[in-house]
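FORM 7B: Structural annotation worksheet

SECTION A. Query
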Amino acid sequence: MKESKDFRPRMRGQKKKMFKNWTSKESRVLIIGDTHCPFDLDTYLDFLVDTYNTYNCNKVIHIGDEIDNHFSSYHETDADGMGGGDELDLAIKRLNRYYKQFPNVEVMIGNHTRMVARKAQTSGVPKKWIKDYNDVLEVPKWEFKVSTEVDGVKYVHGEGGTARTRSKLDMQSTVQGHLHTQLYAEYNVGAKARVFGMQVGCGIDHEQYAFAYAKAGKKPAIGCGVVIGGHTAIAVPMQLEKYGKKSKFKL
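SECTION B. Predicted structure
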């Protein structure tokens, strides 16, 4: 039989089941961990793109602290670090790499995201003087929210405890960031409910001066999360040795 260019092999058994699962219409959410641009790990974006493709994701949520705002911290800053203008310019450039790959993202507003707004409030500056996050960071399509829900799962940056605790208290599946050293998906099952709590790790470069405060503590858990249909949570660790030091996605 002459082979046709349009010939497609038929899938059977496990491969067919996998294909149906991965192409079903249910949501498959990629959750990006804290990036703290411009102090993000250079190859974290490569890992995110691979994870998005591996799980055939169709929605993206950034769990917050997409930028660091180290220059504006309420804690001591590095005297030899970048000034506010230089840090923001570099953060915008590095964030643009993520924006090009993921133009439609819901971003949870984190404590570092709102740092400058908090400083303005402390100084008595009216909100009318403050630009939207989209305008400042040059990410016009991203949606900045305090929290969001997809398929009954709550997504929030998380500054009041762990995801496992919050999910138990609210009896609602919950995904959080903020805690750089935690990456897990944990289920709690009751008589009439099953919920999970997931911490998605982060994508920071802990060698950067902005994280000097954590040098003596645990190393960060570099990773991200995937939630399928609101019922299955997957904590995905990044294999650092696989990706090396340099990203294929340039500034």
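SECTION C. Observations
The chain has seven helices and eleven strands. The longest helix spans residues 84-101.

SECTION D. Sign-off
Analyst initials: ____
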